[in-house]
């Protein structure tokens, strides 16, 4: 009897021991999957919430809903240095009258406190602005631009109606080279007219191009006329193209910040004189030849108007912009451009 009880006791002991081992093994297997760390959670959250500015491709901490704003900037020698150009995502430089160019500065990622001098509208600048559905800011207008804006072709704020309120005059400069506005006052102008100031902006194409066959080009000259004030120069510093005009560095008037950009896109477009004042009509719809300067190189490209934006193509394939800021130089003839 004692032997039988001892035998049963041994069987129970072995059984309980085996169950304990299985539980231990099970716990070990479960612990083989490492717990999610705070660092992993942060990386996951960063990946899910990473955003970029649509017109520069640069990173931002949150999705931006700032509407694009396009401001007509005076580029007459007496208007230099200008204010706020260093914060523009994109700038178009285009001939107005004679050999004087005007600048269309498009803001989205940054909002400068002071912008100017602000100058009058031209119809082809309105077309370029509409490629970004931008709020168009000007001071004055040509007859063609007046017709367009009054017909509702674009939302606009015109200094003709807000001189001394939203716009102010700088007494150290002579009219018409002394009209300025702040980004805050542009916002007030949008509110006064019932214009939206927030919307999602369609991004530019930002990706790396194959530069295997690109030509080295670290110096660019765009010559709008024989007069020195109409000469534009870019020097590549290894990262950006640093701009000068009329032999002087292009800088911000208030901060002395140099204008330095990642992309210089030169566009050849047909120009025609349309009146005795010397105003022009410029064909921004037909496409044509161009040069794309990036990372110290140049590629011969074609440009196309895609939904109002001038974009580079090569052999029918779209090219991307380098992440950062872009200046687009419009010329009647590519012979006005030299590079080395």
UniProtKB/TrEMBL annotation:
<keyword id="KW-0449">Lipoprotein</keyword>
<protein>
    <submittedName>
        <fullName>Putative lipoprotein yerB</fullName>
    </submittedName>
</protein>
<feature type="signal peptide">
    <location>
        <begin position="1"/>
        <end position="23"/>
    </location>
</feature>
<dbReference type="InterPro" id="IPR021416">
    <property type="entry name" value="DUF3048_N"/>
</dbReference>
<feature type="region of interest" description="Disordered">
    <location>
        <begin position="26"/>
        <end position="49"/>
    </location>
</feature>
<dbReference type="Pfam" id="PF11258">
    <property type="entry name" value="DUF3048"/>
</dbReference>
<dbReference type="Pfam" id="PF17479">
    <property type="entry name" value="DUF3048_C"/>
</dbReference>
<dbReference type="InterPro" id="IPR023158">
    <property type="entry name" value="YerB-like_sf"/>
</dbReference>
<keyword id="KW-0732">Signal</keyword>
<feature type="domain" description="DUF3048">
    <location>
        <begin position="220"/>
        <end position="328"/>
    </location>
</feature>
<dbReference type="InterPro" id="IPR035328">
    <property type="entry name" value="DUF3048_C"/>
</dbReference>
<feature type="domain" description="DUF3048">
    <location>
        <begin position="55"/>
        <end position="195"/>
    </location>
</feature>
């Amino acid at each position: 009897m004692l032997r039988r009880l001892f035998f049963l006791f041994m069987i129970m002991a072995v059984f309980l021991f085996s169950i304990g081992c299985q539980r231990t093994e099970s716990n070990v297997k479960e612990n083989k999957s490492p717990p999610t760390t705070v660092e992993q959670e942060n990386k996951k959250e960063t990946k899910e919430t990473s955003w970029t500015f649509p017109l520069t491709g640069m990173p931002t901490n949150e999705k931006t809903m700032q509407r694009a704003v396009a401001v007509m900037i005076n580029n007459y020698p007496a208007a230099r240095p200008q204010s706020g150009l260093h914060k523009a995502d994109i700038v178009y430089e285009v001939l107005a009258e004679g050999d004087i160019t005007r600048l269309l500065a498009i803001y989205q990622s940054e909002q400068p406190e002071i912008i100017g001098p602000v100058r009058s509208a031209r119809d082809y600048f309105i077309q370029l602005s509409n490629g970004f559905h931008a709020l168009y800011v000007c001071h004055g207008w040509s007859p063609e631009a007046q017709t367009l804006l009054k017909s509702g072709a674009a939302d606009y704020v015109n200094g003709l109606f807000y001189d001394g309120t939203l716009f102010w005059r700088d007494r150290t400069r002579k009219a018409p080279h002394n009209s300025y506005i702040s980004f805050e006052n542009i916002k007030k102008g949008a509110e006064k007219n019932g214009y939206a100031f927030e919307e999602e902006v369609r991004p530019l194409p930002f990706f790396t191009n194959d530069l295997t066959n690109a030509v080295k080009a670290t110096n660019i000259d765009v010559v709008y006329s024989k007069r020195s004030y109409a000469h534009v120069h870019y020097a590549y510093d290894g990262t950006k193209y640093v701009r000068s005009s009329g032999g002087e560095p292009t800088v911000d008037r208030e901060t002395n910040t140099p204008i330095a950009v990642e992309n210089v896109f030169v566009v050849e477009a047909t120009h025609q004189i349309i009146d005795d004042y010397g105003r022009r009509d410029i064909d921004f719809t037909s496409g044509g030849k161009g040069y794309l300067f990036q990372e110290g190189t140049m590629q011969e490209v074609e440009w196309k108007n895609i939904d109002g934006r001038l974009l580079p193509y090569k052999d029918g394939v779209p090219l991307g912009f380098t992440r950062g800021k872009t200046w687009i130089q419009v010329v009647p003839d590519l012979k006005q451009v030299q590079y080395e």
